[in-house]
Amino acid sequence: MITFLSILVGLAMLATLGVLFAGVLGMAGGEGNSRRSNMLMRWRIGLQFLAVVLFAILMLLLKR
């Protein structure tokens, strides 16, 4: 269970990083679509929340 949760935390962190880079690169291009950038930043917030929640659960399980 702990190994599976660790993998999920890692995947959530990588997904957050990927969406963050996609959003930043889209904005750095100059003529980026503002709706797309906004959507990517919303996805980033959701993925970041998921990663933090999974990490907190993992820490609670490791505490025992």
From TrEMBL:
Keywords: Membrane, Transmembrane, Transmembrane helix. InterPro entries: Hypoxia_induced_domain (IPR007667). The keyword Nucleotide-binding does not apply. PROSITE patterns: HIG1 (PS51503). This is Twin transmembrane helix small protein. The chain crosses the membrane at residues 42-62. It comes from the Bacteria. Residues 1-64 form the HIG1 domain.
